[in-house]
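Input record, target 12 of the design panel.
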């Protein structure tokens, strides 16, 4: 099975247009993720729930699936051709992680697909799947294997969680990421109250799961309703945003008249939220490096009816991206490029792409963005540093290093900025972190949000 068989991009598009079988569609989508590095969130348009579940399930459990194949059959997916290994992965997901697909159906349909794309491998695929079945259902229970397999994370990613959170907590966090991430939206309180929006969404058959610790947060279950097609979305009554990211803007605490810089702004979630908090009576410089992303910020700000967000091109790694004669800002927000380990529940392709070496490459970029941004904060002003990762090297350690090298800044307690509901539910250890270090880490196991880190610092007046 060493002979390589590669599907070309134009062929995949053609096959997708012609495919009527759900499993075949899923295979073609999976091929793009595993072999071509496509992003999962950009592929799933016009697919049904079965395809979506199989697709996300196969990507999410890919580390465990590859382990099961090797452990139970002795076969290594890296030595298979690209078509065969991805079809087998999809078949194993059905056997191990789906309770709705009978074994015979999983085997038969998988073999039928391989016959179309690599007929010479059909016997091999059939043999692999029957070997796995022969080991019995108990052998497919990943909870009995080593911890990285239990949570379907590469040894590198799991190792990071274990190093900074300990073995028991690392497993808890990893298992939380295996659950389907809840979808939250942010109410645009300049246009509608939370209760009014809830009532309107329910009339449009959107199921409301509950509200969050942020007053403007609503958790929803789509029930096959497309959010962006709703009138309430088109009228700018809400913005799709994870609650953890909402907290960064709340901690920034913008007010009327503030000059604010959001130096890595796209798609504009934090910029538009800060504008909302300040009653749209502030000035927000929303900067991003790509023209398409700047256009997206403008699109979102316009939809939400916000006039205080001014999106423009700029590279946060260029010391002059605000111009040489800029006026210092009251608030500067740095939501820096990061490993994205806090998004594993919503973007499972991160499990396939992030490595320790890639994270190490990000560290100097984060440091430089923060260093440059800090120069743009007025004395007495606020500097917010945030990431969507749980790697402390990118979070607490990055902030500690910054403060060591920038004595003109100091941490600022979060006590007066955290939502009461969140603050009351926090452990003593987290309260101390928030008050003493001016930092908070949100995790899926404790907070039911994405993994997210926020630090609030102030520039000394003298």
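The sequence produced for target 12 reads:
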């Amino acid at each position: 099975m060493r002979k390589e068989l590669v599907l070309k991009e134009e062929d995949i598009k053609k096959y997708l247009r012609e495919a009527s079988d759900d499993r075949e569609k899923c295979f073609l989508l999976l091929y793009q993720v595993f072999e071509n590095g496509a992003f999962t969130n950009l592929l799933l348009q016009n697919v049904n729930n079965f395809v979506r579940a199989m697709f996300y399930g196969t990507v999410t459990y890919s580390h465990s699936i590859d382990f099961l194949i090797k452990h139970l059959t002795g076969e290594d997916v890296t030595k298979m051709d690209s078509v065969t290994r991805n079809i087998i992965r999809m078949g194993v997901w059905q056997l191990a992680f789906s309770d709705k697909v009978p074994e015979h159906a999983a085997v038969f349909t998988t073999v039928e697909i391989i016959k179309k794309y690599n007929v010479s491998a059909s016997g091999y695929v059939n043999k692999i799947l029957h070997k796995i079945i022969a080991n019995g259902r108990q052998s497919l229970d990943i909870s009995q294997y080593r911890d990285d397999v239990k949570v379907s994370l590469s040894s590198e990613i799991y190792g990071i969680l274990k190093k900074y959170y300990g073995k028991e907590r690392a497993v808890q966090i990893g298992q939380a990421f295996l659950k389907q991430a809840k979808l939250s939206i942010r109410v645009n309180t300049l246009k509608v109250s939370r209760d009014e929006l809830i009532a309107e969404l329910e009339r449009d058959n959107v199921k409301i799961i509950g509200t969050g610790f942020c007053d403007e947060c609503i958790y929803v279950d789509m029930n096959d309703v497309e959010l962006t097609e709703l009138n309430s979305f088109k009228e700018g009554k809400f913005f799709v945003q994870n609650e953890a990211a909402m907290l960064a803007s709340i901690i920034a605490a913008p007010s009327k008249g503030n000059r604010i810089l959001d130096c890595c702004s796209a798609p504009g979630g934090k910029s538009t939220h800060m504008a909302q908090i300040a009653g749209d009576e502030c000035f927000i410089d929303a900067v991003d490096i790509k023209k398409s992303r700047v256009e997206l910020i403008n699109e979102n700000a316009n939809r939400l009816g916000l006039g205080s967000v001014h999106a423009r091109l700029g590279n946060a790694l260029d010391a002059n991206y605000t111009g040489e004669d800029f006026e210092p800002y009251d608030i500067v927000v740095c939501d820096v490029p990061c490993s994205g380990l806090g998004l594993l529940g919503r973007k499972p392709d991160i499990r396939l792409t992030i490595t320790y070496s890639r994270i190490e490459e990000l560290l100097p970029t984060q440091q430089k963005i923060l260093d440059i941004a800090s120069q743009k904060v007025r004395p007495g002003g606020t500097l917010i540093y945030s990431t969507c990762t749980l790697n402390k090297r990118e979070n607490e350690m990055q902030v500690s290093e910054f403060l060591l090298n920038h004595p003109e800044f100091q941490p600022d307690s979060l006590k007066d900025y955290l939502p009461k509901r969140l603050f009351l539910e926090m452990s003593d250890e987290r309260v101390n972190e928030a008050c003493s270090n001016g930092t908070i880490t949100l995790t899926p196991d404790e907070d039911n949000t994405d993994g997210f880190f926020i630090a609030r610092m102030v520039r000394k007046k003298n």
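Residues 172 and 445 are 6 Å apart (CA to CA).
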